[in-house]
Write a structure and sequence with these properties.
elongated; seven-stranded parallel β-sheet; three-stranded mixed β-sheet; Rossmann fold; alpha/beta; 477 residues
Length: 477
Amino acid sequence: MTSLLWILIAVQVAMGVFDTFYHHELTERLAWRPSQRYELRLHGLRNMLYAFLFLVLGWLEVHGIFAVIVIAVLVAEIVITLMDFVEEDMSRKLPATERINHTLLAINYGAILVLLLPVLLAWAFEPAAIKSAYGGPLSVVAAAAAVGAGLCGLRDFAASRRLARMISAPARGLVEKLPECQTVLVTGATGFIGSRLVAGLTGAGHQVIALVRNPAKAELPPPITLITNLDQLPADTKIDAIVNLAGEPIGNGLWTEAKRRTILDSRIAMTGDVIKLIARLERKPAVLVSGSAIGWYGLWQDQVLTESAKSHACFSHELCEAWENAARPASEHGVRVAYLRIGLVIGTGGGFITRMLTPFEFGLGGPLGSGKQWMSWIERDDLVRLIAHVIAKPDLSGPVNATAPIPVTNLKFTEELGRRLHRPAVFRIPAALLRRVGGDFANELLLGGQRVLPNKALSNGFVFRHETLRSAFEAIL
């Protein structure tokens, strides 16, 4: 085979390695997303075919029927790749870099086939034989690529089997306390929390109006009414409750000035639109459950924080205070308003924990800084149940801490996660490094922490299914 062909193969390997580790493992975290188990099976099968091709083409010349087998493997790889393209478009939104990388992979693979197929076809018409074709360093590199592809294939198959065990329990039992035939408007309905809430509501027979950006890509269970703007709802629309969860994620990038404005404006603008809707509805909803976060309290180190605690000034407090203030005018229209001060939400398929799973799985996890900072967490299904509880309790209003009753330190959190994954948790990341790289983002979200207790929820009869972190991890992992 020509030097040009080997160069193209080397480029294909490099782009494939980048796609696997940067996209599949680090950014998209496919190995921990139950919705992607079929995609992982396709990746695993394709990687095994790649391993076979690298071994054969790097070390052997195949003639006759053996060349036909190699051609068949190449065709199978093309079919699997096309199936993978379809599956990816159906099951997730690909980032721009991954789409570009896939396009370049396809173009490069086409060039490889243009050079390789004539050679294989010529060999196919010769008598069946397998000859040694050791190419020195090229054969060694091909063997290494085969081993890498094989290991990635085994990893994908194992992750797919694990994801089959991680499928969430049916959501219909999460909102059993709601009265029958409620109509609930949900903003942020396609998010990590909102999608599970919608599934619970529709599964229990309630009517859901979901505000989404793109109805064509909204993977929400029917029956459901999809809207892209609250102005689409006429004044005589019957709405019993509104759950306002929409807002730019705060944990997916550093807090630059532009990012801060986007985070703040997205919440204030959407909540303002909700208030305008309430004002023009002929029949007002009974309750508005509006999102907030435990960041409202600011940084307090070890002090226990309940709903009556004061706050410390920081960006997190500024954000949550503005969000709660934007929702407060709903009370002027006779609507009960509850502010959910949500902690760190853990669950399958999303949330902050998915960013921790990959390094921990490969034995590279550990505490952040001293590890003494508190992590007030809540399991996602418990949060959905708490939202339903707040809707159903007419005397529950104002701030409501949405956290499990037993917060833990970052050190305990990482130890428990490592124990559950059967991995060490010893790679501590220095606080100075985090602050230098992440600034306020690291100082408030990663190193600050709050020790929050859900006094209102407990005193109003709410029972957590997962009071301990161990129980939550056993449920989701």
